[in-house]
Amino acid sequence: MEFDVKEIATATMVLFAVIDIIGSIPIIIGLREKVGHIQSEKASVVAGIIMIAFLFVGEKILSLIGIDVYSFAVAGSFIIFFLAIEMILGITLYNDDAPETASVVPLAFPLIAGAGTMTSILSLRAEYHVENIILAIIINILFVYIVLKSSKKIERMLGKSGLGIIRKIFGVVLLAIAVKLFASNVANLF
Question: Does the keyword Membrane apply (predicted)?
């Protein structure tokens, strides 16, 4: 096992920016208003299981269809790039229908463990040790749980403009991460 604080911190920040639980607070509050209670514990645990499982079997699934991790990482850098553009510019490139219930399905997947998160996990796997990524996932799931539990308090504390500023800051961080992922993996394709 090769635990590396720098790898853990970087992977944690990448996943934190991609999951964007702070930016999702308006969606979470909207779900809570629609259906009442949100199952924070269940959504957090299921999202964590999905992410850790994908960390181990995602590469096998890719190899089954003939795609290597470097190609997936480069493709993932494009997805992360567009997520960052959405966050920075406040536009929507991908519009998903609003869920009807606030259960595991809309929260754990796709809100927390969505396509961007899965792409990031495999992209991170191309560069970092698995144990560091697992710790980063656990740290993020703990943070997701705390945010889900206290979303109303956070919204009152930050206000709409505060949430907007945080979203833009993480958008810029995500954009830099996308550029780094692309640059470090594209050479391995040729």
Answer: yes
pLDDT in tens, 105-132: 778 877 798 777 988 898 898 889 999 9
Cα 115 → chain centroid: 8
Cα 97 to Cα 182: distance, rounded to the nearest angstrom? 30
Residue 108 DSSP one-character state: I
* Domain assignment of residue 125, given as a range: 5-187
Residue 57 pLDDT greater than 70, yes or no:
yes
Can you tell me the distance from the alpha carbon of 148 to that of 50, in angstroms, rounded to the nearest whole number?
A: 18
160 vs 4: CA distance, rounded Å: 36
User: Mean of the per-residue pLDDT values for the chain?
Assistant: 85
Number of domain units in the chain: 1
Residue type, 82: F
Sign of the Cα torsion 170, 112, 98, 150 reads negative
pLDDT at 94 (0 to 100): 64
